[in-house]
Batch of 4 targets.
Target 1
Amino acid sequence: MEPAVLPNQVDADSALARQAAAGDETAFEGLVGKYSRPILDYCRRLVGDATAAEDLAQETFVKFYLGLSTFDPSRPVPPYLYRIAHNHCLDWLRKKRLPTVSLTWEDEEAGTVREAEAPDATLAPDELVERAEVQQAVDDALASLPPTYRGALIMRHREGMSYEEIAEALDMPLGTVKARIHRGRERLQQKLAKYV
């Protein structure tokens, strides 16, 4: 989970955004370098297709670049990027009409197709199996939620964004964001009742 954006990060990102809007390619590359991994991870989690997520993340930065002239540099960059990525992924999902999304991804270096977490060496093998089953159940339950709930929950719990950042990223009132996260949690709780 990444920490919330600090004020000095906002200033540095805003300076890079202003420079990029003025045509400084190095400044834009700095923003891409800083946010490409989190945006790619978010796209992967939201659409569940690693190949499509790479394209969607790249297209997010193209849209960001094309919109730099209208970007308000007094506002933080991450929520703006997440809004672009979220809307672009939702458009892709609507076109593909995918019923579910997995929170796993392909780790090409390790050759795995699972979110990497180190197992607790103090747990017995049967406890490890049970923990893996619960994690799979959580992933499946999250994947079965509508994208409106899933996106907000991923931003809050996997990306570590504040409610305010999510509201800005999704371009909706703070109360709506809180309601979606609350309802999404309730739905997850219902789906996971046998594990609680």
Target 2
Amino acid sequence: MRLRAPTLALLLAGTCVVPAAAQRPEYVSPSGVKYFAQADTGAIARAESTLALAPRDVNRIIQLGLAQAAVRQYREAIETLTRGLALAPDNAPLHRERGHRYISVREFARALADLERGLRLDATDYGLWYHLGVVRYLRGEFGAAAAAFARARPMAPDDNELAGSTDWLWMSLSRAGRRSEAAAVLEKLRDSLQVPAGYAYVQRLRLYQGRLKPEELIGAADTADIQLATLAYGIGNWYLVAGDTARARTYFRRAVAGGGWPAFGFIAAEVELARLR
């Protein structure tokens, strides 16, 4: 059923603000821990107001979804993007953004369907390849993950993304047993990446290169929950690749001990702990 524009705007607005007492968890972990969205500081309301002026504008729908995701309202973002896809089913960015958010709430099959659909529509979209690699990796399909990251890497829009796609490519190749190819990826990485100090993916790459020791990776300044989960998973996976399952498990547990539940490192650590039972 096609919604009329005013009706769509009202529905979009009505899904974004949930009273704290009635707030639903965005994600419930395998151990029963409930994780919730953060407080909105006004970005969602502004995006809603902008969308209300042009309810069928796909770019404005995406911006609302991004505002919701920024405060970890991932299920609300999925609802927003789903309504966008009802208007524009062949819009690749909508599939990319919803696929990403399905990963956030651990619905990997739906994420895979969105990302593959998006790539059939636009095979030049870096984010689609990158997130396809992530979901393939989480599903244990390491060869397919490596293929996706190999496609994404040359399209990286900046050094942050280049570091990230290189990191995931190294991990995917290593987990697929293709150690020489993984080593070659590190050899080709240039030293002059323009990234923020302490950027987690660059720190992990230095670990893989032997330039940092595992105990040096997490410093006193690494207090943000996403950063901690990202670094801890990278160390755990490095130990796992080296065959040290006990230390790998220790770091995977550290990755999921904090509040960084949307981080890919947190999600991957959950998956690894389930595999290592």
Target 3
Amino acid sequence: MFALVDCNNFYASCERVFQPKLKGRPVIVLSNNDGCVIARSNEVKALGIDMGVPYFQIKDLIRQHGIAVFSSNYTLYGDMSARVMETLREFTSDVEVYSIDEAFCDMSGFMHLNLDEYGHTLRNKVKQWSGIPVSIGIAKTKTLAKIANKVAKKADGVLVLDKPDFTNAVLSLVDVGDIWGIGRKWTAFLNGHGVKTALDFASLPDHWIRKHMHIVGLRTAHELRGIPCIAIDDAPKPKQSIIVSRSFGQSITTLDAMLEAIVSYTTRAGEELRSQELVAKHIQVFLTTNRFNNDPFYENAITMQLPVASSYTPELIHYATQGIKRIYRQGFRYKKCGLMLMELSPVSHPQYDIFDTQDRSKQLSAMSALDTVNNRWGAGTLFYAGSGIKKPWAMKRGLKSPHYTTEWQDILKVQVKMLNS
């Protein structure tokens, strides 16, 4: 048995945890630079506001309905996600974090329990310990658990599919396009052959599915029939690359400002690299203007190989800035730049160069000290001067909530008043 635990309206729910007055009030969260809607509470969905709609287009609706608007606060959301996942591990050791707001749990050892009651217990504990509401779907396969979760969101928050007749009844109500792994093209293809529901798909002959949809489609059909084909993966696959890229809050028109931005992004990439205990052998930097306005368009990228795979930020900055200088062209209004670290490998298995003269152990010690300070006292406590001070190009997040759980100055303060008896 598998359980899929999915946080409800996750970003909006994170904002509500620390502002209870938002309960029942419509809440939206905006993308980088406060561009468009990327998260909506149920109240916003009921108003008919779609995902991805530009912020400026709905300002009248926001005022009319008193919608609370927030810039994306990924530091807060990431920490709240970690708290939810840690809560799940208190109930089962086999947890696969599928995304920032979803996780699969192996429930194989809980068959002697009433799974519906256990699901409600888990749901209540996550809400009590993290403040985040979740929906839970429990079934014999991960694909069925996905479907159970989708239905649970519209019911009482927990749904168990462990009986064939009930499972088939639910599958008969689920569109084939809502099956995990069935995309738009397959949906159109299946609809063209009269396959409308998940039950229709699960009832197709194996030879027909294998002929038209190959082994992946057949595996999905078996999962819908209650035959597990996708196991819990509690060890996340190592990253193949790390990308840090942001659109600027205002267009960049000078090389100095572009260098500040790439130094800032490279610093972040180096931190992520070390947090994963990885080193990078290649670095690619890129920049682009806005292709959607009337300004002249230009974009370019360059990839460079490091002498030795490294996570030493000053070395990464050296190559990143050299690359930007080579592809930067004067006379353009740049909208975005970024970098990608590639050919990643574990720091524990370095490949040295006999001509390398750098003291790599000293570099690792320096980065460890830097990361320790920033982790303890907050991101950016120590930073590279090359990333700039004022940063007028920085991403706009004028409506961002405080970092309630990761910054000392943002921790909520509670005033207690003693009442006379």
Target 4
Amino acid sequence: MKKIVFLPFLQMRSGHHQVAEALMDIVKKQTKGILVKKIDLISYASPTLEKMITSWYLKWIRYAPETYDFAYKRFFYSASHNDHSFKWYSYFFLKKMEQLLLAEKPDLIICTHGFPSYLLNQLKRKGKCEVPVINVYTDFFINNVWGREEIDYHFFPSKDTKDEFSKRYQMSEKRMVVTGIPVHQEITKNTKAKKRGDRPKILISGGNNGLGGIMKLLSRSKEPSQSDFYVLCGKNEKLYNEILSWKMDHIKPLPYISSRAEMNHLYEEMDAIVTKPGGVTISEVLRKRLPVFVQSALPGQEEVNLRYLTKKGLVFKLKQQESLEQELISILKDDEQMSQWEQSIQSFQDGIKVEDPLEMAEILGGILDQKQLKPSGQMEHLKVYHFARA
């Protein structure tokens, strides 16, 4: 039985895990005789270290966002790509990655985070990894952590990202596919925007950890309203109980939703969403053709995502110069703005070449079916790549 190992980062719930799980479920449902396994290298190396890093990371973003933003842009999103950025600790994790490869013996590796991709890129360069590796990017840009030249295949979030990557690295078309950021197949695709009702239903999402300033956003929405607000509180029980104590019929807190089918149904019921620009959430709502309003962005990758999304006309950035409801309604009822948004959505989705689960499974199966793995840069014979041709 062949094995695909998926490598996200850390144990906390994140887009890296959601994308891995979306692809794992495609493999399970569309293929037979393939084992899938998800492993966090940090936990594999040291569960205690993983807990320390997760705690430190969340506290850094919450209590010192300016310094996190500076560090992210300085080291992980600068104009130059510096392979030496991680030398001070990469030796330890390179050894752990070698141990993982020997223990798991995968036939294919899929990275949904840049750090394991970086390590595998180094091992391939040294001739210590002959397993094909796929980068599946989970934001609307590629930061400097990701491995590049030695990685065998690249699944891009957009045609823009793919074109920029191709121009810089002169890589063969047959190693690059525009898949969008993969979302679970239970989040079904809408081909047209829904007709909005007289009383709009607005979904407000602050992320699973309740970050994002939801209380501030809702502070001026307690007055009688002509809209209904549904607030996804994630695992933030304090936020959930606070909103519940308001006893406002038009503001309804929702607890953590683990069911993708339930989440898909909720999207279907909404007229718009206010959220942060995380890669997976945005990809889900673009797939549903749900108008997206962004109130805030976490420092680092979300801010970079937001710049791309606003430039392409895929989201609306809230100015917060008036009440939330007034700003939302003024845009949703503006036929010209909504028409431009729908054109932007269509243009973006037209650039995605592989989105159907069956096609995705065929590509992964085609890579696994190779009897003799050729060195990176020479793997251009896969028939499945007719899906990816521009």
